[in-house]
């Protein structure tokens, strides 16, 4: 039985500019949580889309076989940093079946919020 898909979309993304609390643990962030349940490492490509400009990327990461990797959009800098205070969406392609979950830590105020949802797959 194969678990996962090759193409995923996260339609929501936004990284505010300021956090409260100790860093790096409480630094606000958007994360793609990637699960590679198969026996072959997955090569994952991330493209970031914007409202009023061309996409950024490709950002390429590897997820080991039978491993997980949490990729913070804050840390994607290969082609350019993902901008703060900007709405974005992302498309995630993998050469192996993976599962993608989206997570946001919003620490702009002392009462933090953590939001998570499974991405859309096809």
The major beta sheet can be summarized as: 8 strands, antiparallel
What fold name goes in the CATH topology slot?
A: Hypothetical Protein Tm1070, Chain: A
**Structural domain tally:** 1
Output the radius of gyration: 14 Å
The proportion of strand residues reads over 45%
Total E-strand runs = 8
Shape: elongated
Distance between the termini: 17 Å
Helix count, per DSSP?
Answer: 0
Helix content: under 10%
CATH domain class name: Mainly Beta
The named CATH superfamily: TM1070-like
- Low-pLDDT sequence parts: none
Provide an overview of this structure.
There is one protein chain. The chain has 122 residues and is an all-beta fold. The chain has one domain: TM1070-like (Hypothetical Protein Tm1070, Chain: A, Sandwich). 0% of the residues lie in helices and 52% in strands. It has no helices and eight strands. It has strands at 5-10, 29-36, 42-50, 56-63, 67-72, 88-106, 113-118, 120-121. Strands 1, 2, 3, 4, 5, 6, 7 and 8 form an eight-stranded antiparallel beta sheet that branches. The mean pLDDT is 83.
């Amino acid at each position: 039985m194969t678990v996962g898909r090759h193409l995923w979309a996260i339609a929501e993304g936004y990284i505010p500019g300021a956090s409260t609390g100790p860093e790096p643990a409480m630094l606000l962030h958007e994360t793609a949580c990637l699960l590679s349940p198969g026996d072959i490492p997955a090569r994952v490509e991330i493209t970031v889309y914007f409202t009023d400009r061309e996409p950024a990327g490709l950002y390429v990461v590897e997820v080991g076989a039978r491993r997980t990797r949490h990729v913070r959009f804050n840390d994607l800098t290969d082609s350019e940093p993902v901008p703060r205070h900007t709405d974005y969406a992302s498309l995630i392609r993998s050469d192996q079946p993976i599962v993608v979950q989206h997570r946001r830590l919003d620490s702009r105020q002392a009462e933090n919020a953590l939001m998570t949802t499974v991405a859309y797959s096809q």
